[in-house]
Amino acid sequence: MSKPDTVRFRYNQAILVAAVIAFVGALPLASARTYLLPVLLLPLAVALWAWRAGTDADARELRVRALAGQRRIDWDQVLELVTDQRGRAVARLDDGQQVTLPAVRGVDLPRLVSATGQTLPDNPAGAPGQ
User: Where are the transmembrane segments (predicted)?
Assistant: First the structure.
């Protein structure tokens, strides 16, 4: 169970609904021949991914969750949080790696930073209006 001070980012649950519909739609195909049964695995994998994948953040660390497994990143390792060209949030680490944060968009960065107990400046350097 997550703590109250943990900020959770997850993908839209409509993906989970679509996976369930795809599973139900694939049932007639999969039941037609036994060698088509693995067709059901794809919507199941998508449903599991939609339910599990995302990013959790608290004052101690980031947890990047995927379909299978998770990665814990201490805030001490994070040099900066930026957005890529597609608007996704990326954590640049002190060892040179860049980790895309699942389900976190650029507009979510202030909420992500607030999980650390810190705040962003109201008017960062280089922002329009200076």
Answer: 12-29, 35-53
> How far, in Å, CA of 117 to CA of 130, rounded?
27
Q: Is 79 left (phi over 0), alpha (psi -120 to 50) or beta?
A: alpha
- What is the tens place of the pLDDT at every residue in 34-49? 999 999 999 999 999 9
Amino acid of residue 60: R
How far CA 76 is from CA of 46, 65, 80, 92, in Å, comes to 33, 19, 10, 11
* CB contact burial 101-117 (16+ within 10 A = b; e otherwise): bbbbeeebbeebbebbe
Asked if residue 120 has pLDDT above 80, the reply is no
Of 14, 42, 17, 18, nearest in space to 29 by CA: 42
